[in-house]
Structure formats: C-alpha cells, structure tokens
Amino acid sequence: MTRLLAKTLLVLTIAVGASGIAAAEVREVIPIKVDEATLVRLPDRVATIIVGNPIVADATMQPGGFLVMTGKSYGETNLVALDRKGQILLERTINVITQPGAVTVFKGVNKESYSCSPTCEPRLTMGDDGGFFGRTSGQSGARASRAESATAISGSMTTGRTNESVGSGGMNINIQMGGGVP
C-alpha cells in the first residue's frame, strides 16, 4: 500500500509539473498608509502603469523614473508596469493599511475614528457613523476653506494694495500695509 501511495504521488507530481501549473508567484508587497503617498522607483522604459483597483490606491508617473502611490482606502490591489510593447516590467502587490495611532471607538453600532498621536483628534475614515463623519468632514472642509482664504489674503499682500478689508467666511480681516494706522 505504501508503494502504491508513493507511485501515485510521484505520478501526480510529474503530471502537475508537466501541465505548467506552478506554485503561486510571490510578488513584492508595497505597504502604503491610507491617505498617504509613497514613492516607487520604476524600471527603465515604463510606458504604462495599471492599478488593479483604483478605489484602493492611485498612481501617478513622475519624471525621473518615479511613481507616486497614494493609499485611498483599505485593502489590497496590484500594480503592473508595461513597456511600449506591452511586456511586463514590474508587478507588485499594493497593501493599503491604517495609520499608526488610529483608534476606533464603538458607541453601540456606531463607529468613530480618531488619530491619537499624541492627542486624539477626529479623523475621516470609511465606515464611520454618518453623523460623526458629516460633522468631521464639515469641520475639515471649513478649516481647509479658511486656510485657502488665508493663502489668498497673503497673496493679495504682495499686490501692493494697502488698507484692504477682506471677508473670509463671515469674518473680516483688516490688512495694513506700510505701517500706518487704519
């Protein structure tokens, strides 16, 4: 019986090998944190890049042979780089992971996410409770809008105009140029 089993295993091993079935290819994994970017060095002659699932990660080719990979949502996808003839030059697995310091709080069935490094602040994370996500998103949007307004104001300071008042989200900012009193 042992000889029969050994012969059967030998025949199966030869049959599998002859059929072209190989062990699963092991691809290098590129870990990316969600909402962060990382640089990937591309081989020469890359003409096309393909991201298997653009919802998980995004890729942008840059001059100098670099690729900027951005983690968009949690999960795994693949990256393929081709030359002009369609030959595969690079294949990698992209693994988008959570940020260190991320804390998830469950209030019943409702989920809230925080970045805690060193203090805890709300963060926008897929799967969060709709109300929490909306409030956090609204605050982030208002903050970004104010930052853009401040950038626009600092840009107008270089125009040479003096003593101008600029409205910014319900707040007036008086800018004095030239050291005078308003």
TrEMBL record:
Signal peptide: 1-24
Family matches, as Pfam families: T2SS-T3SS_pil_N (PF13629)
The organism's place on the tree of life at top rank: Bacteria
Residue ranges of domain Pilus formation protein N-terminal in the record: 29-96
Biased composition (Polar residues): 151-166
InterPro entries: T2SS-T3SS_pil_N
Iron as UniProt keyword: no
Region (Disordered): 137-182
Keywords, in A-Z order: Signal
Protein name stated in the entry: Pilus formation protein N-terminal domain-containing protein
Protein species of origin: Variibacter gotjawalensis
